[in-house]
Structure to design on (989 residues):
RNA sequence: GCCGGUGUGGCGGAAUUGGCAGACGCGACGGAUUCAAAAUCCGUUGGGGCUAAACACCCCGUGUGGGUUCGACUCCCACCACCGGCACCA
């Protein structure tokens, strides 16, 4: 009776399925135990691709499975579900090529993938499985869209509210409307000083025409239609995400030209949440690098808005000042020119007749190049003078206004004040066009010396006066902090102030003078939410004959995708023709909705793939609910986290990933880093809206996040640089390359042709994917699981080495042979009491493994189990304590083998329900311990002393050691350091 | 360019967070078992020196160079290499 995973594994998988071992009851369900603590552990659910999984994919799934099984054994109610994010391009592309409906492809791929996941022995609650493409699911995705559409963001409360309440506030006069459409709280008007150039004043809601009222309301919705610049690919007939456009402005698929064009698209007002999305990163327990990536992506900058009056009058309603945002208001006295983005609306207003031709040409050129192109071009500065001037409000200097494409319309006001002395970009530009460079911040002496260019002086004072006279003689801009100089007018002087103080002083002054005010800017843009695709969620929106937008009622949901056979996007050669999404060809019975005799057309775009993944973690709490997207009870139960107000973990060096999340939300969310700023940001945004509207109970969706590393693998290229299949490569002895990769002096070949070895992420494109089913067939799934966890730390990327698998396979074999007689099949267990040494080791192993579980240090936990098992090898019969402990420790990692042994040890299934073993602290102490002895920090000997020996006794024992005594001959002992239980160090001269 | 991460034997990695560097596994070498092989079991395995050999002993060693400390893979400073993110964001 040898260890035979091919027999054991399918049997226990069938057992778990029949017994519904991993089904998690909700509060109120049969079998629900309210006394237990709860834990929600979740994987980033996959897109069900046609090629199936390779061994890199399930690393995270196996890790969460181990965590979930461990938590169950520790007595938690564990929610551990799996589903599929199945809308998206690949199924649609496949449909275009083959005519097979995406629904069919998706169903097939999901079935295939579920089979693979089950063969990995993953203990999911499969009763909760769904796909984002299920009508029952996307009905609620549409419902959440309606929540967004029917809400506005109240800046005073810093939260979303129902849109009706905005109308009520305006109706009641609690809010007025500014001339730019901004909302104004009349109660807060006192002390308001209008910024120069803006027409002050407000209008009452009642003064607006009904049409104006409707448009105003629409402008405040969290989901809104707007004309935005998109990447439009005429040949493919669709907009593309930035990620789908290559650096040279062509489509990744098909290499067709792509250009920017304005299109009316659905947008989501994620920018309203910029501040909360940054601030609340402080309450979640995520890896710092991921938090940082989100912070950088959202891009908060503190600074000031400053108005620069134009020096010549402008016609009609046109503004007579240029507003800029700056993070360095302290350098305002050094602003020697201004730059507008080429698209800035003021350009056509202020350009003088003399400059018009040059400006027009520049604007046209800039327009033709996509934003992407502009960003990727060499940083050589270009620009044109408009002929117009503005006035620097602090010193009344008349400064020229240029246009240049290094200023982006999409950030701030699309215009900047240029301070060439203290900004690299402005410095380059000023140098190139001969604009003045005025120093207003004092650099350090070192900086002056390092950047003096060809100045002969080297005395600090001489350099300093040269810098004050003309900062352009130095070789770059000084962008660091320092004390201000040259910064005074009749009313205010910043001279001598530090950068931080100067920022505050000048901002106060600007505010008092009505010239500007402190401002916070974000890089984050609103989220473009329309796609010209078939395989996505339809919008619950109708368009009326006069262009009015009608949102459907909840009772109209779901808006199902119409049956179609042709999913191809419509190519168009006319860059100005409006795109016709595939749904434009849907049957009229779907497309047209008649209400009260009026013909409405459905919105023909669909939602982007991210929509479904923005809330799936909520649906898992209550996946079959037909009344709500999730019941309040289920949501409050599973998403509660620890919700403690306990102190943060300052000073804690290693975290416990398996405690309920302090902020609430999913307790442990595991996935790759690639979603750091996309899915993870979008989902947080949706969650916060649902939170504001009272639909969920926690401010954050994912309390704890863990990023697992990638599996890498060698790949091979032939002489032409073409990748060849890695499993066909052999070395000079004809051995498969995969078995000898790291042995020195190997030469590899493919079909007799020499190939070179490289290293990269495992996947289809490098032809180095390893199928988990193949490894399972050779070694068993338990071995594969164990190997993937044993390779190294979970968060690290690490190389796949087929050769190494035998190590853990031998371990499992040895466990089997230690406990089962291979001839008779009897268990080799004795009820005799274990030796004191073995007993202590059992307890020590429990301690080591348990500690490693908390830090997800599975590789080290496995090493501890191997050590314990190695001790059992020499025994004829293993004491029951050791056997049962080992089996239970192993259960989360190699669940099939553990189930089999647990049963053979005389227990009823399932070991998944067994208790995690406890260890006894008192069992861990040894009577005598060995201590290393150092002399002057170098190891010179070892002593064995009673564990409770005091410092003097230890020192005496150390001096008694022959080698130590030798070392000390002729030396005077200066100091003796005894570290309890660790070592003793004697300092002598 | 800016930001972040990682550097430990032939390979994957460990080190109770400032206390015996290299746990555990792979590979390699030697041996046992076997007609033989596979499988299994036992032993050795960071580099160098000394030694006929073993034991013992000595020196060096965690990317590089400095520093703090009785003591540094761990802390500080400077640098190098690789990986990742952002990239004219004012």
């Amino acid at each position: 009776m040898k260890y035979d995973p091919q027999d054991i594994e399918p049997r226990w998988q069938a057992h778990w399925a029949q017994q519904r071992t991993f089904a998690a009851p909700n509060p109120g369900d049969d079998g629900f135990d309210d006394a237990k603590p709860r834990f929600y552990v979740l994987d980033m659910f996959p897109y069900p691709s046609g090629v199936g999984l390779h061994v890199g994919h399930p690393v995270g799934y196996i890790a969460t499975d181990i965590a979930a099984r461990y938590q169950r054994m520790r007595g938690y109610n564990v929610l551990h579900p799996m589903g599929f994010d199945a809308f998206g391009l690949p199924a649609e592309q496949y449909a275009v090529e083959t005519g097979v409906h995406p629904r069919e492809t998706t169903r097939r791929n999901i079935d295939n993938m579920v089979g693979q996941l089950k063969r990995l022995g993953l203990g999911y609650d499969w009763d909760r499985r769904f796909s984002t493409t299920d009508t029952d699911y996307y009905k609620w995705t549409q419902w959440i869209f309606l929540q967004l559409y029917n809400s506005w963001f109240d800046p005073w409360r810093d939260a979303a509210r129902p849109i009706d309440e905005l109308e009520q506030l305006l109706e009641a006069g609690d809010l007025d409307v500014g001339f730019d459409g901004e909302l104004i709280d009349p109660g807060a008007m006192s002390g308001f000083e209008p910024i120069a150039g803006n027409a002050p004043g407000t209008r009452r809601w009642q003064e607006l025409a009904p049409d104006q009222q409707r448009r105003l309301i629409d402008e405040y919705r969290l989901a809104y239609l707007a004309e935005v610049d998109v990447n439009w690919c005429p040949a493919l007939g669709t907009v593309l995400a930035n990620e789908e456009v290559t650096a040279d402005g062509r489509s990744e698929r098909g290499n067709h030209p792509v250009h920017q064009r304005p299109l009316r698209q659905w947008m989501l007002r994620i920018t309203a949440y910029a501040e909360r999305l940054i601030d609340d990163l402080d309450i979640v327990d995520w890896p710092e690098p991921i938090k940082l990536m989100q912070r950088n992506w959202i891009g908060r900058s503190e600074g000031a808005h400053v108005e620069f009056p134009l020096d010549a009058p402008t016609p009609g309603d046109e503004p007579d000042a240029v507003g800029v945002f700056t993070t360095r208001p302290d350098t305002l006295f050094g602003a020697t020119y201004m730059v507008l983005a080429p698209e800035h609306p003021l350009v056509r207003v202020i350009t003088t007749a003399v400059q018009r031709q040059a400006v027009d040409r520049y604007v046209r050129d800039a327009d033709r190049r996509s934003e992407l192109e502009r960003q990727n071009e060499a940083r050589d500065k270009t620009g044109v003078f408009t002929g117009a001037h503005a006035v620097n409000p602090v010193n009344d200097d008349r400064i020229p206004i240029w246009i240049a494409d290094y200023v982006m319309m999409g950030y701030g006001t699309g215009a900047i004040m240029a301070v060439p002395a203290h900004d690299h970009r402005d410095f380059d530009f000023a140098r190139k066009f001969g604009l003045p460079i005025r120093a207003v911040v004092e650099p350090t002496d070192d900086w002056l010396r390092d950047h003096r260019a060809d100045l002969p002086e080297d005395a600090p004072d001489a350099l300093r006066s040269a810098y004050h006279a003309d900062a352009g003689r130095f070789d770059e801009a000084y962008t660091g902090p320092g004390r201000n100089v040259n910064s005074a007018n009749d009313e205010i002087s910043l001279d001598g102030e530090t950068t931080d103080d100067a920022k505050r002083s000048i901002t106060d002054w600007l505010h008092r003078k009505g010239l500007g005010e402190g401002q916070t800017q974000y890089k984050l843009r609103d989220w473009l939410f329309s796609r010209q695709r078939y395989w996505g969620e339809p919008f619950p929106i109708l368009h009326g004959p006069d262009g009015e937008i009608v949102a459907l009622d909840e009772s109209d949901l779901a808006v199902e995708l119409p049956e179609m056979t042709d999913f191809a996007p419509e190519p168009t050669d006319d860059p100005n023709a409006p795109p016709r999404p595939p749904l434009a060809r849907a049957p009229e019975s779907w497309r047209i909705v008649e209400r009260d005799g009026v013909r409405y057309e459905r919105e023909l775009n669909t939602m982007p793939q991210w929509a479904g993944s923005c809330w799936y973690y909520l649906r898992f709490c209550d996946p079959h609910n037909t009344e709500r997207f999730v019941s309040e009870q289920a949501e409050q139960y599973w998403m509660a986290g620890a919700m403690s107000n306990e102190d943060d973990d300052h000073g804690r060096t290693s975290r416990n990933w398996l405690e309920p999340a302090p902020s609430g939300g999913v307790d442990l969310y595991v996935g790759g880093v690639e979603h750091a700023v996309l899915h993870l940001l979008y989902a947080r945004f949706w969650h916060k809206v649902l939170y504001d509207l009272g639909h969920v109970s926690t401010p954050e969706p994912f309390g704890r996040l863990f990023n697992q590393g990638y599996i890498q693998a060698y790949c091979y290229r032939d002489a032409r640089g073409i990748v060849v299949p890695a499993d066909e490569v052999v070395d000079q002895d004809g051995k498969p390359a995969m078995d000898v990769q790291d042995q020195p002096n190997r030469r590899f070949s493919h079909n007799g042709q020499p190939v070179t070895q490289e290293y990269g992420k495992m996947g289809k494109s490098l032809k180095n994917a390893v199928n988990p089913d193949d490894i399972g067939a050779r070694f068993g799934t338990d071995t594969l699981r164990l190997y993937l966890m044993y390779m190294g730390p979970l968060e690290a990327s690490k190389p796949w080495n087929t050769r190494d698998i035998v190590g853990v396979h031998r371990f499992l074999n040895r466990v089997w042979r230690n406990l089962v007689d291979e001839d008779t099949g009897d268990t080799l267990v004795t009820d005799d009491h274990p030796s004191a040494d073995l007993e202590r080791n059992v307890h020590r192993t429990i301690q080591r493994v348990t500690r490693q579980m908390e830090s997800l240090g599975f590789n080290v936990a496995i090493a501890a189990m191997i050590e314990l098992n190695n001790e059992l090898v020499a025994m004829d019969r293993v004491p029951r304590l050791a056997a049962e402990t080992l089996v239970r420790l192993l259960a989360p990692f190699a669940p099939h083998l553990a189930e089999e042994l647990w049963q053979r040890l005389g227990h009823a299934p399932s070991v998944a329900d067994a208790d995690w073993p406890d260890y006894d602290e008192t069992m861990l102490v040894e009577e005598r311990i060995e201590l290393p002895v150092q002399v002057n920090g170098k190891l010179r000997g070892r002593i064995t002393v009673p564990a409770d020996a005091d410092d003097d006794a230890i020192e005496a024992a150390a001096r008694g050691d022959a080698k130590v005594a030798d070392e000390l001959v002729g030396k005077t002992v200066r100091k003796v350091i005894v570290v309890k239980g660790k070592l003793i160090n004697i300092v002598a001269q």
User: Anything to note?
Assistant: The CA atoms of residues 531 and 541 of chain A lie 14 Å apart. DSSP finds 32 helices and 36 strands in chain A. The first helix of chain A runs from residue 5 to 19.
